[in-house]
Amino acid sequence: MPNARNIDPxxxxxxxxxxxxxxxxxxxxxxxxxxxxxxxxxxxLRILFGDPILVRTSHGMEPxxxxxxxxxxxxxxxxxxDSIIASKSSFNPATDHASFELVASDYIASTLVTKVVxxxxxxxxxxxxxxxxxxxxxxRRWLDEGIFDIAIGYWPTFDYGDLYGSxxxxxxxxxxxxxxxxxxxxxxxxxxxxxxxxxxFGSINSTISSIDMKVDEALRGRGExxxxxxxxxxxxxxxxxxxxxxxIATIPTNFAKMSAEQHAVRVLPLPFPVAEINxxxxxxxxxxxxxxxxxxxxxxxxxGRLL
Length: 307
Fold this sequence. Notes:
By secondary structure, the protein is an alpha/beta fold. The chain has helices at about 10-20, 25-30, 35-50, 65-85, 105-125, 140-145, 190-195, 210-220, 240-245, 255-260, 290-305, and strands at about 55, 60-65, 100-105, 125-130, 150-155, 165-170, 175-180, 195-200, 225-230, 250, 265-270, 275-285.
């Protein structure tokens, strides 16, 4: 098996371009190579990976399934290599440019990331953030492959392995009910909680959240079960539902307080104990010592401490 350290990075770039162009001559033009030089590169790639890479069809040359997978993964590797080459030993947020790809739920985005963005506006005008929804089963792979830089969330069963991680903030759980709820007064009793219909995050296409699993586990410990009246695929929808119905929702306290500022809902303590949730930030070793990433992670922790 070939040693990765003996592989010419230029050859890997040729693979990426060949898959994109699906044509040896066009790939050669993009790489400022001769056609014979690109043909030679294709022959070397076929030997290296034991795969045709490009095959002739009635529609012209097409990449194989393995070539497409290889090109995608090699693209992430080359991007990481570019970052290493371009990385600096220091980062000046006032003048330097940087971008960060995050994995974060709606809850994290609305309570934490919005405040991070607010801080960036005045201190780091050339820093950009991109956020995507988490898939707990894919987070490790996404970080390993460099698709995302940082994952932020509540993952009590997440296997960190060789990834780096730290707690950003802790939160408790509370209930929101509509302001003029007909049966729930100033205090939410256990009887009220069990008698109410509940709105919660989760649907056929989105698994139950770790937070709701925590709530249901606490109830099972008491021999109780809540009555679910509505499952929604978007966490941010819950305050709208509660404000316009007799349903109640159990959500993180920071998000509950923010919801009360924007909707006709009240925040009430849970009538039974549930351990606090610890929101963590996870990242790969490739960015651990990068000055820009270190600065950004420190900023996230600083904002988290203020929640």
